[in-house]
Structure formats: C-alpha cells, structure tokens
C-alpha cells in the first residue's frame, strides 16, 4: 500500500518523495557509523527514534535503505546511491544557508540613518556612541538633511530610520517621540530687542522679517505652525539652509531668528546671542523617530530607537514625558 507523502513539493514532480534535509543527514550518519544506535547518538536522538525515521524515509522513497543485522546496519545498494546524491544536496544546502547568513549579517551590520540637522548635530552623536558600545560591529552611515528630505529617504527605503523635527508627518510613516525641544527667539546683543523689558508678542514676531531656515526645514514649519493664528507672516529677511548659517547671520546683526534651543545653547551661554522672551505662542515641539508604516524597526535600528527614547539620554532641557 502506498503511504501518503509528508515531504514538501508539488504533486507529480517527484519532489514529494524527497526526504527532508535532517533525514538525509541521519542517513549519512548511518552510512558512516554502521549502526543505528551510534548514528542516532550523533544526531541527538534515540535508537528507536532513528529506526522510526529510517522506516519513514523508506516509505517515502519507496524502497529499502538500510539492511539491519546482528553486527550492525549497512545501506542497501539503493540506499548507498541515495546517500551519494544526498551529499551533493546537503552541500548545496550548506552553501545556501551560508549565503542567507551572510546576507542577514550584512543587514545586521549596517545602519542607514537620516536625521534633521538639529537632531544630527545635537542629539545623535551621543546616541551613536552608545550604539557603538552596544553594537561595535555595526557600521552607521548618517545623512543630515531637513525633515522633509528625511521623510522622503525613509519612504524610499534609502534610510533604515529617520529623525525629524517638523510638526506634521507624511502619510505612510509611523513615529515615536524621542525628545522635546523648544524654539527660542534670538538676536545679537546689540539688537534693540535685547534691551527691551517686555516680551515680544506672537503677533509682533509674525510681523517681523526674520532670518529663517528654508521652508522645508522642521524648524521653519514648526515656527509657521506656531504663528499661524497671529496674522500674515512677514517675508523672511534671509533664508539659509543651516542653523549654523542662521546663527552667524544673527550674531552679525542681520536681524532676529527663531531657532532650536539645542542649536543656540552655547551661543546664549557665551553671550554671543541673546534670548528674547515670546508670549502668545507655543514654541515647544516634539522630535520624533520615523519609519515606514507597519514596519517596526529591527536590528541596529531598533537598538538606536531604544537608546534615543531612554529619558536619561535626553538633553536636560528636553527631558519630560515622551508620550
């Protein structure tokens, strides 16, 4: 009576009669040891289990594989021929397994990060130091661009993990808050605002020509959102592509700007810039990690996200609940 096939493969191709790789390994051990008991021990199973596996293979292929005798077990001529063929199959499987392992290792050892300039300059360095301690084998490439470009990179799968500072997200992204930041109005110490006793109102700030980042930057979009209810925005005095350039222009006396406190902290401490209090607008914002919707980060990206969301890794002025 024909036994039903338990092997994978389309019916009628012959693959339904091919034993699984583990059974082929066991058959070769029987050939090498001349004993079902010793073959089973080398394979990590009992002699009865070995006998049962051999009988299952014999039913599957349709002919005897092992001759059992008082002095041991030997392969039948057909079993010996099958074993010879099995060696080639197992060698090819080892090559396949090694290739899969190398591809996984390459993925695990490489991390592509895209981050907004504020995060890249002021937060990521210490996160990456911790990642290097936890995963010294991981090679990290970092692209520092504005938030819009970060989102494009993540959606195009040219970055494994992104960090943005804008108030809104593109469709198709999931996010997690990693820190909180606040925007501050800054001027040169010689600017009239540096000597005023009263805060600048949100409406006054909206009506002032500012030194700004480019429209697609997270800082610029966050400021636009904060001032949206306070009248028509004045045209920018200057539009510059980095916070460093904006700080330099303000320090040179070009005019006021609104930047991340992370970016101007050292300038405020040294007196190179002066902070101007602002009333009537919420200038706090959330800095977020982003990845494609439904694809929670794994491997090094997961570890970097874990490091970034640890509260003791946040800058002192940004600590607080991250929900």
Account of the 3D structure:
This protein is of the alpha/beta class and 323 residues long. It folds into two domains: 15-106, Arc Repressor Mutant, subunit A (Orthogonal Bundle); 111-318, D-Maltodextrin-Binding Protein, domain 2, CATH 3.40.190.290. The chain is built from twelve helices and 13 strands. The chain has helices at 21-33, 36-43, 47-61, 77-108, 117-122, 124-134, 147-155, 202-206, 218-226, 243-251, 261-270, 299-308, and strands at residues 66-69, 72-75, 110-115, 139-144, 161-164, 173-187, 200-201, 211-213, 238-240, 257-260, 274-276, 278-279, 284-292. The strands form four sheets. Strands 3, 4, 5, 6, 10, 11 and 13 form a seven-stranded mixed beta sheet that branches. A two-stranded antiparallel ribbon has the order 1-2. The protein has a two-stranded parallel sheet with strand order 7-12. α1 (21-33) crosses α2, α2 (36-43) packs across α3 and α6 (124-134) crosses α12. The longest helix is centred in the N-terminal third of the chain and has 32 residues, at 77-108. The protein is rod-shaped and about 105 Å long. Mean pLDDT is 87; it is low at 1-9 and 312-323.
Which features characterize this protein?
323 residues; alpha/beta; Arc Repressor Mutant, subunit A; D-Maltodextrin-Binding Protein, domain 2; 2 domains; 7-stranded mixed β-sheet; two-stranded antiparallel ribbon; 12 helices; 13 strands; 42% helix; 20% strand; rod-shaped; disordered N terminus; transcription regulation; transcription
């Amino acid at each position: 009576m024909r036994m039903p096939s338990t092997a994978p493969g389309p019916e009628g191709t012959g693959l339904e009669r091919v034993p699984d790789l583990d059974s082929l390994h066991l058959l070769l051990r029987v050939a090498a040891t001349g004993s079902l008991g010793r073959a089973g021990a080398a394979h990590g199973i009992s002699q009865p289990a070995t006998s049962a596996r051999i009988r299952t293979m014999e039913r599957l292929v349709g002919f005897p594989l092992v001759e059992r005798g008082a002095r041991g077990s030997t392969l039948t001529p057909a079993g010996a021929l099958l074993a010879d063929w099995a060696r080639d199959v197992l060698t090819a499987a080892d090559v396949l397994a090694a290739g899969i392992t190398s591809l996984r290792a390459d993925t695990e050892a490489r991390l592509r990060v895209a981050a907004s300039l504020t995060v890249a300059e002021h937060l990521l360095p210490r996160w990456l130091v911790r990642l290097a301690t936890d995963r010294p084998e991981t090679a990290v490439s970092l692209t520092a661009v504005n938030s819009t470009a970060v989102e494009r990179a993540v959606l195009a799968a040219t970055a494994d993990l992104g960090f943005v500072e804008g108030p809104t997200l593109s469709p198709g992204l999931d996010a997690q808050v990693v820190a909180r930041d606040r925007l501050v109005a800054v001027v040169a110490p010689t600017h009239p605002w540096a000597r005023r006793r009263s805060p600048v109102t949100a409406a006054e700030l909206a009506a002032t020509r500012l030194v700004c980042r480019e429209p697609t930057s997270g800082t610029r979009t966050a400021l636009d959102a904060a001032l949206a209810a306070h009248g028509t925005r004045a045209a920018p005095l200057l539009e510059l592509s980095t916070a460093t350039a904006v700080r330099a222009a303000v320090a040179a006396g070009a005019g006021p700007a609104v930047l991340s406190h992370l970016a101007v902290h050292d300038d405020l401490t040294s007196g190179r810039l002066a902070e101007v209090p602002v009333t009537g607008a919420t200038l706090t914002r959330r800095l977020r990690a982003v990845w494609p919707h439904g694809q929670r980060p794994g491997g090094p990206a997961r570890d970097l996200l874990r490091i970034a969301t640890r509260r003791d890794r946040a800058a002192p002025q940004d600590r607080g609940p991250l929900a």
